[in-house]
Amino acid sequence: MTATPERLDGKDVTEYFDGRIAAEIRLPEAVDRGLLAPFQYFGVSDNVDLSQLHWRRGGYDVAELNNVYTGNRQRADLVVRSLNRYVTDVDKVIGIGFCVSVLHAQFMAEFMNLNGISSIALHAKSSSKDRATAKKRLTHGDIRFIFVVDLYNEGVDIPEINTVLFLRPTESLTVFLQQLGRGLRLSEGKECLTVLDFIGQSHKKYRFEEKFGALLASPRRSVYQEAKDGFLNMPRGCFVQLEKQAREYVLDNIRQAVGNRKILTNRIQSFTEDTGRDLTLANFLQYYHMSLRELYRDQNPVSFSRLCARVGVRASFTDPDEAIITKALTKISTINSRRWIHFLLAYLENPSRAMRDMPRTLAEQMLLMFHYTIWQKPVNRCGFRTSEESVGMLRRNPVLCSEVCDILRINLSQIDFVDEPVDLGFENTLDLHCTYSRDQVLGVL
């Protein structure tokens, strides 16, 4: 059991369990089910422009962030004014503020104290006595805020926290959820968590989409549309309100990132440098919290392999059926039957062995389904004699065949653990084309 399946070091904890997750509950569902406290999230317009700061290894240059935040009394005054505006009673705050550096945390604590809001800074260099007594002082009301850096992200339980300040951009979704989670613990007398997120002009590589997307109750609408309409699709008892300028910053950032192939290729080109990870389809999607559907949703999709070749991070290739296979990638990314995927992976590796290991009729039905997934028309109209010949076509396209297998493995890792075998019930393969829609067939599987 883990609260952080997406690890900061990039290691995949599911590899020890054959890539299977028995059960999963994400933040919005946990709030809906009363397992976490509801939140009210205010996006405050920040006057600090971060768009020209350097971006290194997946995030802002920390030294540059420290320079623009530490000693910035105008911004610190904005924090105080925002607290008085959005918090009902500052004297009842039990809060934590996440800062970029030790100097930033110390500056914020000093500024708050000067403005009558008792606070301390806590960091790795703090004395053991200060660290040991900080929690008690906060929960007893002796202080209103603890300003931290690289502390209290995880492993600390202070259920009473009712206010969280994001005083620096958090590039990692995992860290963002960990920090937000410090205030989502249930506690007697706590009605909700108040979050103040200070949003300024961001670097083009910063992603607001994934941060706000993680808060939505359902992925039925795009994050862009949610932000534009005022975040209507939130967990029960929660809301997100963005000030006018903050809203424009968020919308502009998402507008540039979503469906922008140039940004996508830039991320591919600098992926290993930014993340320290090998560039694979699975690693790329995991790091940027993208789905296969998002990657291939363009009206004229391009394969991940082709994008890699275009920016020179992989060798160029010539697969004879590239156009047809690429067009089918969106459909392949929706396959969600464990048994079907296992068969397809086995068939693409060794067709004759896969056919021996599966009842012939069932194997032919699965091949025919995959044929229609790719071609969308009968076998004979595509110039093939059998569905085996049609699906075998993939093997003469080695680069894209490898990408298709990667997609199937990613799909497999996202299927629920329980997958009982079922009887397809088709009298013959003609029933598949003439009687059943593709969605119905996938539903049966």
From TrEMBL:
GO molecular function: ATP hydrolysis activity; DNA binding
Domain Helicase C-terminal: 82-230
UniProt organism field: Alicyclobacillus mengziensis
Highest taxon listed in the record's lineage: Bacteria
Pfam families assigned: Helicase_C
InterPro entries named in the record: ATP-dep_Helicase, Helicase_C-like, P-loop_NTPase
Name this protein carries in UniProt: Helicase C-terminal domain-containing protein
SUPFAM superfamilies: P-loop containing nucleoside triphosphate hydrolases
